[in-house]
Specification:
Elements lengths: L3 H16 L3 H36 L4 E7 L2 E7 L43 H13 L4 H13 L23
Antiparallel strand pairs: 1-2
Helix pairs in contact: 1-2, 3-4
Length: 174
């Protein structure tokens, strides 16, 4: 994005305002133009940065960053990864997307999909990604599987070993 147009526009407005003040004001304005050039660019960059921060908050987990290329800012938009659970229209076609191990029944009767932002500490995120990859699943599918499993009634879950329940053996084996 070229800021020169905006800086020049501000300088032109300053010159017009100074003309109304007479020759002394015009002389002062012309001496202020050079230092105001850098200050104007800085203020514009700060306002663009603040705007990018607001946009990033609204579109989390995606975001907007500003990078400088010389004196000109460049916007970099990072879109969130979108992992759809179903084909184009989930209410009309409830077949799972190929490669997705989560059935619509695992999510409820209607098979509707909602979006939830989950903020994980980086070490936990890495462990989740590794576990999902180890099962050949996307992170989204793995999380749905784990949450669905955790919410199943206890009687339908596979029995777990509890070492504190006295299930240890002692003795000799030949």
């Amino acid at each position: 994005m070229d800021l020169t147009r905006f800086v020049n526009d501000l300088q032109q407005h300053l010159a017009i305002a100074a003309a109304a003040g007479g020759p002394e004001a015009q002389e002062l304005a012309s001496r202020l133009l050079a230092p105001l050039n850098a200050a104007t660019r800085l203020v514009l960059l700060e306002s663009l940065s603040a705007a990018a921060s607001e946009i990033t908050r609204e579109m989390a987990p995606g975001g907007v960053d500003i990078r400088l290329r010389g004196q000109d800012p460049e916007f970099v938009v990072t879109l969130p990864e979108h992992e759809s659970l179903f084909t184009d229209s989930p209410l009309q076609d409830t077949r799972p997307v190929p490669g997705n191990d989560v059935s619509p029944q695992a999510m409820g009767d209607d098979g509707g999909v909602t979006r939830t932002t989950l903020r994980l500490p980086e070490p936990l995120k890495l462990r989740v990604e590794a576990a999902a990859g180890g099962e050949g699943m996307s992170v989204n599918s793995w999380l749905i599987k784990v949450v669905s499993s955790a919410l199943e009634p206890q009687s339908r879950r596979s029995p777990r070993r509890d070492s504190s329940a006295g299930q240890s053996l002692t003795g000799w084996v030949q």
